[in-house]
Amino acid sequence: MVNARLPLIAGNWKMNLDHMQAIATVQKLAWTLDEAKHDAGASEVAIFPPFTDLRSVQTLVDADKYPIAYGGQDLSVHDAGAYTGEISGAFLARLGCRYALIGHSERRQYHGETDETCQKKVEAALRHSLIPVLCVGETAADLEEFGASAVPIGQLKAALDGVSPDADIVVAYEPVWAIGSGQAATEEQAEQVCAALRATLAEMLGEDFAGRTRILYGGSVKSSNIASFMRQPNIDGALVGGASLDVAEFASIVRFYKHVI
Ligand code: PEP
Questions:
Q1: What DSSP element (H or E) covers 199?
Q2: How many domains would you assign to the chain?
């Protein structure tokens, strides 16, 4: 069967690049992709800058019609009110965000985000017509104790509880031991878990939902290993951390289709 899912290459900038640096980086990314004649029908590009950059990114993307989507690195479970420091999905939607990252392992690890919080954040994103990019993945200890799929599947089931089969979501499988370590999963390991996640989506929300939902791999993705992941039938793109800060490297990952045979 032909894979009709548009690959998504998403760059998570984490807490890097202030709004002035964001302007320069987005311009450089757009020029690099344009010069390389990037085919937007072959892969979609999205970036996740810090919240304080989003207005600048929106202004630039809108003015110059850059084919670059963007989103928030997190969002509040609440829509408005006395929640100091929180960012509403409504505000992200007003800034033209298409996506919201949810449940990144750094949020789970350093900010105590539970599966229950992630489920509420998925609901909040969908309420504001944002596409949740739900991150799931096992730690090295989980891998040893439970194997590769059990923890990500459990996180997926919990976070998608109550989601409608009509919803548009993206799942990012990010083994925690591979994030920022320089040690990516092998393509076989990643494919095995992504296939198990897709089977879980089919069980929970039906074949149609599972067939159209994009599942990304994340964890030490670079231009030198992206092609091997993109050859796998259940991997529809990548969530890229460190390498997304290097424009030439990120643009080369976006253009993986030039080096996948
Ligand atoms: C991430 O933080 O989502 C990530 C995948 O990071 P890196 O690419 O640096 O491993």
A1: helix 187-205
A2: 1
Instruction: Using alpha carbons, select from 176, 220, 169 the residue that is nearest to residue 198.
Output: 169
Q: What is the CATH number of the domain that holds 69?
A: 3.20.20.70
Q: Kindly compute the dihedral angle of the four CA atoms of residues 70, 153, 238, 257, in this order, to the nearest 10 degrees.
A: -120
Query: Could you tell me the pTM of the whole model?
Result: 0.97
**203 flagged as catalytic:** no
Q: Is residue 138 part of a domain?
A: yes
- The confidence score (pLDDT) of residue 260 equals 66
Query: Residue 114 has what pLDDT?
Result: 98
Q: For residue 259, what pLDDT is reported?
A: 77
Beta-carbon contacts of residue 168 (< 8 Å; ≥ 6 apart):
131
CA distance 251 to 243: 10
96 CA to centre of ligand 1 in angstroms: 24
Range of the domain at 208: 8-258
Provide block-wise average pLDDT over 10 residues at a time, the chain (261 residues). Answer: 81 98 98 96 97 98 97 98 98 98 97 98 98 98 96 98 98 97 96 98 98 98 97 98 98 91 55
Q: Is the CB of 100 under 6 A from ligand 1?
A: no
Cα three-residue angle 119-140-156, rounded to 5 degrees: 20
Mutational test site, ligand 1, from 12, 106, 224, max ligand atoms within 8 Å of CB: 12
